[in-house]
Structure to design on (643 residues):
RNA sequence: GCUGAUGUGGCUCAAUGGCAGAGCAGUUCACUCGUAAUGAACAGGUUGUCGGUUCGAUUCCGACCAUCAGCUCCA
């Protein structure tokens, strides 16, 4: 008999070679049905795994990440199986689980059409109904290659696996796939699934390789969960800033202006102004000096900074470098411009740190397929800044940047939605970076030390550094789950030297300072987009472009409404009056759809006794109150912002 | 840049190889209204752009532009 330690600490005795599946059944039928995979002594394995020694076992259900992965990975095999049955000539690439479902990449002569998804789903239903067991087996490399000889992508993968090790496969019915597992015991457990989209995806994520057809899907143990998930996806679409932001008239785009060049409408422009003032004021409090530098420069500048060699494709160049004696380029970054402030005279170690900030408009010639609403654009304005400091000040300055970013995130309410990423260089892709490996290792070690001292939880990412140094990226996901960088703080040990930025140290020696490139709240356009999504358009009062709408019950109160609006504006509130001859209910409804935080309704009663009937976006009717009382209430709420 | 889809008034959508239509929104007039959708009238389109086929193209074909999903790239 074997001693099995279960997750709660319970110990069970089972016969040798008992499968985890049977163990589940012994524990309870509920667990048996819900189980997806198991963790045996910390290793995630199939439920069909037979226990041969004393060990600890944790049963993974769909509620755990690993259980979900096994479930979705099995769903992806079922999909590939269905595709193989329907389109025998299609070659299989890879098909993993993702954080939110699964996909499989296929190489198909004819691209899949939307109608094909239904056909594939129908075939998948049959495979599920057949409840085919998934069987793990392994082969030596030569046999594995022979088995997969009609599948060129699998052959490529097998050839890269280490010599001498057996290669594992899973079989379900007539379908066999190269796979490390784990999987559900049989296809019958994938009860509810939906194929969501067909897109292109490069083989091995490499844009120089062939583009394959990727089908995305989701799957759940119960039909109800699938329905809920699909409803959630629909709900997410309603928050999409690219739709909501246009509906609410924050921004628009025009074909003949061009891609990635949004027009900020009065509401969008107002919110960005509010954020900019907030950022600039806070930076001033924290010792930053504001600069305003040119939006373009001669190519000479970018040659010094390295942008001409490393970022030329991303710049809008004015003039032809082949023909013209002088070529200008719109700036893709502020650094080389702002450095000139530092360089304007010799600096002493006593002056450092020098903290420069700028509300800086940048231009980047992004590839045509990259633009997305306000999140990815070709012209944007960033809360930019550079700190030149001595090595002994680096940690404190870095800490200050992280603190400022955290303060901003908390103020706008995104602090719970972000996560931190330590972005490192890729030593195998040296062309992308300047500086020596030793310098990189040192800068990265410095940053890691600082991050650990700050007790920041972070993930590490290779190959995500800037070309001049490592970054701390503050990442966020949009409403569709797509990840973007909101804020970045970078340590640069290269550009000071390139630009000859020096200071005279206490020992009389000229030295190069460290430079921190940092942003407080990121790009205003992107931040606005994420705020619209976060709040579904209903921004907190202090950043609402329209805070109050005053509505007369009938035309008789038009004058009272106008004078109320004036008084509210004088009190510093952003106010509109709705003087159209529409029914009251209709005007209220419209203000609601436009997410206006407060509506003040003035009828005969209110006009007579100097009150207003207040309706709030959040709480509905609050009732009548004296005019001044409402102003006090609104002011209090505005001031609550950055507590 | 790549793969695929899409493009008809401000919005949502219809129709057709032979005069492009509806609802909502808009404007004007009347109604003066207490929590959306009174009545009447008006206005709004070179069907994304350019080219081709055709007696005739919004419809068929091509190129381009823009939008969307994703890949790749990035704040």
């Amino acid at each position: 008999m074997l001693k099995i330690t279960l997750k709660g600490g319970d110990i069970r005795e089972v016969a040798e070679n008992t499968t985890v599946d049977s163990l589940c059944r012994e524990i309870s039928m509920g667990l048996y049905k819900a189980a997806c995979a198991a963790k045996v002594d910390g290793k995630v394995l199939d439920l069909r795994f037979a226990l041969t020694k004393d060990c600890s076992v944790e049963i993974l259900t769909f509620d755990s990440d690993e259980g979900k992965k096994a479930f979705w990975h099995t769903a992806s095999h079922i999909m590939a199986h269905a595709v193989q049955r329907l389109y025998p000539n299609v070659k299989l690439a890879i098909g993993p689980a993702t954080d939110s479902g699964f996909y499989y990449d296929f190489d198909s002569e004819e691209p899949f059409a939307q109608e094909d998804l239904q056909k594939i789903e129908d075939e998948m239903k049959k495979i599920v109904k057949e409840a085919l067991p998934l069987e793990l087996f392994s082969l030596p490399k030569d046999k594995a290659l022979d088995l997969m000889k009609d599948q060129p992508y699998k052959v490529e993968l097998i050839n890269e696996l280490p010599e001498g090790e057996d290669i594992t496969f899973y079989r379900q019915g007539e379908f066999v796939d190269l796979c490390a597992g784990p999987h559900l015991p049989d296809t019958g457990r994938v009860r509810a699934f939906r194929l969501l989209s067909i897109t292109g995806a490069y083989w091995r994520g490499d844009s120089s390789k062939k583009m394959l057809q990727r089908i995305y899907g989701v799957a759940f143990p119960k039909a109800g969960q699938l329905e809920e998930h699909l409803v959630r996806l629909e709900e997410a679409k309603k928050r999409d800033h690219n739709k909501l932001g246009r509906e609410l008239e924050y921004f628009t785009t025009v074909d003949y202006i061009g891609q990635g060049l949004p027009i900020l409408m009065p509401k969008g422009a107002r919110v960005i102004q509010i954020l900019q003032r907030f950022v600039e004021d806070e930076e001033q409090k924290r010792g930053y000096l504001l600069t305003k530098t040119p939006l373009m420069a001669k190519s000479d500048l970018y040659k010094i900074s390295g942008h001409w060699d490393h970022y030329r494709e991303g710049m809008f160049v004015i003039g032809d470098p082949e023909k013209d004696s002088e070529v200008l380029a719109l700036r893709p970054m502020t650094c080389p411009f702002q450095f000139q402030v530092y360089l304007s005279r010799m600096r002493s170690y006593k002056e450092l740190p020098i903290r420069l900030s700028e509300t800086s408009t940048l231009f980047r010639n992004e590839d045509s397929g990259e633009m997305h609403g306000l999140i990815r654009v070709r012209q944007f304005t960033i809360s930019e800044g550079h700190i030149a400091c001595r090595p002994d000040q680096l940690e404190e300055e870095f800490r200050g940047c992280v603190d400022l970013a955290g303060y901003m995130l908390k103020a706008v309410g995104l602090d719970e939605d972000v996560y931190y990423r330590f972005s490192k260089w890729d030593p195998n892709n040296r062309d992308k970076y300047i500086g020596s490996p030793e310098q990189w290792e040192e800068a990265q070690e410095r940053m890691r030390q600082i991050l650990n001292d700050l007790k920041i939880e972070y993930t590490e990412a290779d190959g995500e550094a800037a070309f001049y140094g490592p970054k701390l990226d503050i990442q966020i996901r949009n409403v569709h789950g797509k990840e973007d960088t909101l804020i970045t703080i970078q340590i640069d040990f290269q550009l000071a030297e390139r630009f000859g930025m020096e200071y005279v140290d206490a020992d009389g020696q000229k030295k190069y300072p460290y430079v921190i490139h940092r942003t407080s709240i990121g790009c205003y356009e992107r931040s606005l987009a994420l705020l619209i999504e976060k709040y579904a358009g209903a921004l907190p009062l202090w950043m609402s472009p329209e805070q109050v709408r005053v509505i007369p019950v009938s035309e008789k109160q038009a004058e009272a409404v106008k004078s109320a609006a004036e008084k509210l504006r004088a009190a510093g509130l952003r106010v509109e009056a709705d003087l159209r001859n529409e029914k009251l209910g209709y005007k209220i409804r419209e203000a609601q759809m436009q997410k206006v935080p407060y509506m003040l309704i003035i009828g005969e009663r209110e006009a007579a006794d100097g009150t207003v009937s207040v309706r709030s976006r959040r709480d509905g009717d609050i009732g009548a109150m004296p005019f001044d009382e409402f102003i006090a209430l609104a002011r209090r709420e505005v001031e609550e912002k950055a507590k």
User: Anything to note?
Assistant: Chain A has four domains: 2-61, 71-230, 251-534, 541-639. The CA atoms of residues 286 and 400 of chain A lie 9 Å apart. The mean pLDDT of chain A is 92. Residues 65-86 of chain A form the longest helix (22 residues).
